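Risk register update: the risk of archive-format incompatibility is retired. Evidence:
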Amino acid sequence: MPKRTDISKILVIGSGPIVIGQACEFDYSGTQACKVLKDEGYEVVLVNSNPATIMTDPALVDRTYVEPITPEFIERIIEAERPDALLATIGGQTALNAAVSLARSGVLERFGVELIGCDLPAIETGEDRKLFAEAMADIGVEIARSGYAYALDDALALAESIGYPVVLRPSFTLGGAGGGIAHDANELRDIVSQGLELSPTGEVLVEESIEGWKEYEMEVMRDTAGNGIIVCSIENLDPMGVHTGDSITVAPAQTLSDIEYQRMRAASLAILERVGVETGGSNVQFAVNPTDGRLIVIEMNPRVSRSSALASKATGFPIAKAAARLAVGYTLDEIMNDITKATPACFEPSIDYCVVKAPRFAFEKFKGADTTLSTRMKAVGEIMAIGRSFEEAFGKAMRSLENGRAGMGVDGADASDESRFAEFVGRPTEDRIFYVAEALRRGWTVADVHDACGIDPWFLSRIRDVMRAARVVDGRRLEEFDARTMRAVKRLGLSDAQIAQLTGSEERIVRAFRKGLGVTPTFKTVDTCAAEFEGRTEYHYKTYEEPYLSPGACVARQDDPEIAPCDRPRAMILGAGPNRIGQGIEFDYCCVHAAYALHDAGFETVMVNCNPETVSTDYDTSDRLYFEPLTYEDVMDIVDVEQPAGVVVTLGGQTPLKLARMLAESGVRIMGTQPEAIDLAEDRERFAAVLDRVGAAYPDAGMASSLDEARTVARRIGFPLLVRPSYVLGGRGMVISYDAASLSDYMDQAVRISPEHPVYLDRFLEDACECDVDALCDGQEVYIGGVLEHIEEAGIHSGDSASCIPPFSFSDRVVGRLRDLTRTLALELGVRGLINVQYAVKGDTIHVIEANPRASRTVPFVSKATGVPLAKCAALVMAGWKIADLGLPPDDRRLKHFCVKEAVMPWGRFPGADIVLGPEMKSTGEVMGIADTYPEAFAKTQIAIAYGLPRSGTAFISVCDRDKRHILPIARAIQRLGFRIAATEGTARALRGGNVACETVRKISEAHPNIGDALAAGEVSFMVNTPFGRTTRSDGYALRTEAVKHGVTCVTALSGASAFVAALEAAADAPDGFSIRALQDLEVYDVTVRR
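Archived output:
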C-alpha cells in the first residue's frame, strides 16, 4: 500500500545520551529515519537530549527539541507541536519506555497521537517477560525455565526450584543493566538487590542458566501485509554468559547447518507475528545447546536494536530507513534497495564475505572494577571488519580496536600473565581472545582450548591456522618471502606490522617489499546481493585474492578494484574509529559535517572508518565509504587507489592525528593544520617556548623519564602536581599527586601507558576555574566559536565537567582576555582549521593549560549553542576558503540564552570503581540543557540524566575538612528547600556551628544502623561527599559505592554541589515545570560556498 496521507506531522523520540548498552547506533538509526520521513514529505519533530549527535542538528528535521526525554517534557512538546503520530522504535529502550509511559497515562489518546512502527500491546508483549513467555508457549517456541521475583525472598525461592546457576534479568533495563549470573545464594543477593532497584517495574526474571550454549541473533523486518525477511544472521564467538554487546560476533552465522538456520528463520518470523510487530525491524536472540541442538529463544526487541546498525553495515541493507517507511504505510515490495537501485526490499540480503564485530572496553578507566565479562554489558564501543574469509576479517578487527595491538597477537605487544595463563584462556575478559590465540600458537589443541573457554571448535580451528602461519613465518628474513607466501599470510589477516615484528623488520619496509612482489589488495563492493545485481553505491572493503587464469589467458591476474572513476578532486576524511571514553561520537559528528561541506564545495568525499555505530559509516554520508581499519597500512592502501587531493586528519580525534606524520612522510597531502603544528602544540617544551614568546602564563612544569627525574621536578615545583603521559586523549593515565609516595606509584604505571614519550608534571592550580575556548583559524583570521566555563573546579577532566556557554561568572574583561589569547595562540601555532585551548583562571591570572590544534569534543555542543556549524566551517577552511568567505555572524555577539553540557557517567556498570571525578575522563556521553537562566539549564541536564530531580526527603552530607566552611551556604540552601539534612559526626558539628539543623548518622563502617542502611532503605534523596588528597578513604569509597548500587545521586565536588542546589532552587521556582524551546527558535546560521 502507498504511504499514509492521513498523517502529516510525526514526533520522533531519540535515545538520549550515549551510555553503555545504548550508544550511537541509535544516532545512526534515528538520523536515517528522520531523513527518510523528511524525504517522504512529512513534517518531523524530534526530541533528544544529546547535543553530540548528527540527529540533533537543526538542519535535519523541522523542529529539534534538545530536552530531557521524560514523559513530562514530551507531553509539553506534544502540546506545543500537535503531531499526528509518534515513532519510538528507533530510539532504543529510552524512547520505548517513554512511549509506553505516554500511552499508559493517556497523553497520546488525549492529544490524538497515534503510536506508529509498533503499537502498545506489541511493545508490552515483547518487553514484558511474562507476556512474552505466554506468547512463545502459544506458538510452541521454547524458552528457558523461569519465574519472576518482586523481592529477594522470591528470587531465592525460584533459584532453589530451578537450580543454580541462574540468570537474573531485570525488566525494562538496557544492556543487561542490573543483571548477571548467580552461582550461589550470595551472588544472587548482590545482583537481585540492585536489579530490583534498576527495573522500572521492580521485577527481576530468574531463569535457568544456559551458560556455555551458542548464541545467535536474527535481524528481522516485517510489513503490514505480513511479508517478512531475515536481513542478517549473527553468531556470537563467545558462548552464552557474555552479553552479546561484549562478545565478538560474526555475520553471517558460520556454524549453523541449513536445517538449524531454517528453524531459526521460521521461529523469528513466527515470533514477530505472534508478538504483533506489524511493521519495522526487530531483533530476536536464540541459544542452541551444542551437545543436543536444543533451541530456545532468549528474547526479542520490538524495535530497531543495537545489532541493527551492525546488520545494516554488514549487509548494506538500511534497516532504519526501511523501518521508517514501513511505519508510514509502505510494504517491503514497494521500497527500492538503495544499493542496487533494481531490487525491492523484500529480497533478503545475500553476502559473499564475512563480517566480524569486536567490542572496545575501557577498564583502565575504572580501577577496582571487575573485568570479568558477564550478562551486564561493559563495552564502551565497537568496530567492524570485512573480509573474504573469517580469518581475514578477524585479523582486521583485531587491529582496529585502538588498543595498541597490530592484530591477533604476534605483534610485540603480548604481555601474558604466565602464572594465570590457563585461567585467562577460560575466563571471559577483554583479553581472553589474545590468550586463546597464544595458547593455540603454543600448541594447545583445539579440543583443549574449547574445553577451557567454550568457543566453537570451528572458530578455534581458524584461529589455529593463523597462529600456525605466524609460527612458520617467525624468524624468517623478509627477503625469503616470495609472492605466494606473502599473499598467503595477508589472506590470513596478518598485518604488515605483524609481519615486521615476526621478521625483525619495519612496517614501511614490509609494505614496500610487499608491493614490490606485486602483492596488493583489491577492493570489493558491499552490494546486498553477492554480486547478483550491480551495486550502484560506492561502499567498499579491501581483500587479498589469489590471481586466476581467465580462459585462453597466459598470465594469472586479480580482479580490478570495484571503484568507479571520478573527475572531481577527492578529499579523504579519516574517521575516529571505535567509540571509547575520551573519543566518542562528537568526533564522528565533525567528520560527517566535513563530508557534507566538502561534497557541496565540489569534492568527491572519501570516508575511511571502522565503526559500525556511526553516521559517518552510512553509505550515503560521503561519496565513497571504505570500511577499513585506521592504520597506516590500511589507509595507505586506500590512498594508492584513490589518490586524494588531500586527507583530513584533525576532525577524528587522536586516531587519525597520530597517523598524520607517517602519512605526510609518505607523500600524502594533509589538509589544514600540518603535522608540524600538531607536534608544536603536543610537545610540552616546544609549546612552553611558544607561550613564553607570546607572554602567556602557564603552570610551572617539568618533564621526566624516570622516578629520579620526577622527584627532582617535584622538589622544584612543589606538590600538588598534575601528572600525565604525553600524546594521550581523554586524560588517560592522568592523576593529581599530593605527595612523593603517590608520585612514585604513578611513575611505575606511566611507562606502560606511553613508553616512547616522557611524563609531564604540572603545578596543579587548586581552586582555579577552568574553561575551554573553541576557535577557527585560517592562518590570517581567527573566529572564536565559543567560551565555555566549567562548573566544577580545576582538577576534573573537561570531558567530565559540566560546562556553560556563555560563561556565567566570568567578567567581560576576563572573557576578552581569553579571546585575545586564543587568537594569538592559533596564529602562532599555524592552525588551519579548529583549535581548542584550555585555561585555568585563578584570581586575575589566566593560565594556559593546553592547546589542541584539532576538533575537540565540545564542537557539537558549541555549534548547537551558538548556531554556527564549526566543523563544516573548519572543513571549508582546510580546503582553502577564508573565514571572511563563510558569512559568519560576529563572534562577540551576546547569546540570549544559557546552554549547559553535563557528562553522563557509567558508574552502575562498574561496581567497585570509585565515582570520584578527577583528571582522567570517565564519562561515556553528555546531555544539554537550554534555558533563559544558568540554573534552569543545569537543572534540565540533571533531569535528562536521572529522569527527574529530588523534591523532598533527606540530603546526606559528608565533606572533607577543607570543605567544611564552604559547605555551610549550600547546606542552608538545601534546608530552605525543605530537605532534612543528615551528616556524619565531623560534618554535623560544622553544620550545627553554622546554624544548620541536622541529624547525626553513623559512618558506613560503624555499628548499625548507619548511613549504609539508610541508603539501602531508600531514605536518602541525594548526597554530597567530597574526598580530599590521595587517600581513597575506605569509608568514603564504600559510601559512594553503596550510593551507586542504590541509584542515589552523589555529588563529589563542592562546585558541583552548588550547581546542583541551584538546579533544585530553579525547579522549586517552576512548580508547573520548565519551558521548552526548539533549536530552530534560536539563532541558526548556514554556511554555503560556491563550487
